[in-house]
Specification:
Helix content: 55-70%
Number of helices: 11
CATH superfamily of the largest domain: GntR ligand-binding domain-like
Structural class: mainly alpha
CATH architecture of the largest domain: Up-down Bundle
Order of helices and strands: HHHEEHHHHHHHH
Largest sheet: 2 strands, antiparallel
Length: 253
Amino acid sequence: MTSEQGRPGVPFNIANQRARKRPRLATAVVDDLVSAIVTEIYPSGTALPPENMLCDIYGVSRTVVREATTALTEKGLVVSQQGRGTIVRDSSAWNLLDPMILSALFRREDGLSYLDNLSEIRASLEAAMAAKAARRATPEQVAELTAQIDKLEQLIPMPAAYVHEDVNFHDIIMRMSGDRLSKAIIDGVQSKALQTHGYSGRLNVDHVRDTHAAHRRIHAAIVAGDPDAASRAMRDHIESSWAKRRSAPLPHD
């Protein structure tokens, strides 16, 4: 099987500006090893299987294994030690904003604590961005936000469709704030959380109605140009929404 170069979404090390994309096989091996390390199949301080064994486990060449090991090193997960091999580092060294690491963290037995932390981060950052949006909103931006809240109103009977447009509602406010760094942090962290049932939950119409009422309060505060009210409404919305999803029972398979 030939390697696929230039594939979008393949991880790279921003710190040293490496633009080279990793082959598909290496990325698959990295993904599996990241999961094994983060979920402590390979605990901190232990060595990964030697190179030849990894080749046998994954059915790949030494070149692929070396690519994968380099990627794990870039993510802060492992370090090569003379005479000991590739050693798993303590979690304090991990790049917790790396998408693969985040995805694995949310799947751990204690993954709920990381989702709690994500909710806290969102509440703080989005509350601040809602306040900025209230201060900076142009008539055109207000019109866009109003069109979105009206669109959401029509989707209340359809929870799945509402959830999709809910994300767009928050995205509009983040763009209105002009805070590109906070938006990038939230986008990066939340994208993996949304793939986790414990975070996304299964919403019913009653929950959607409560969510929409909260969106209306946020919208009203921004339109009124009231940053304090916008910040408070956004924080209350995120905290209360997560509390409901967190306490909801998981569906049976």
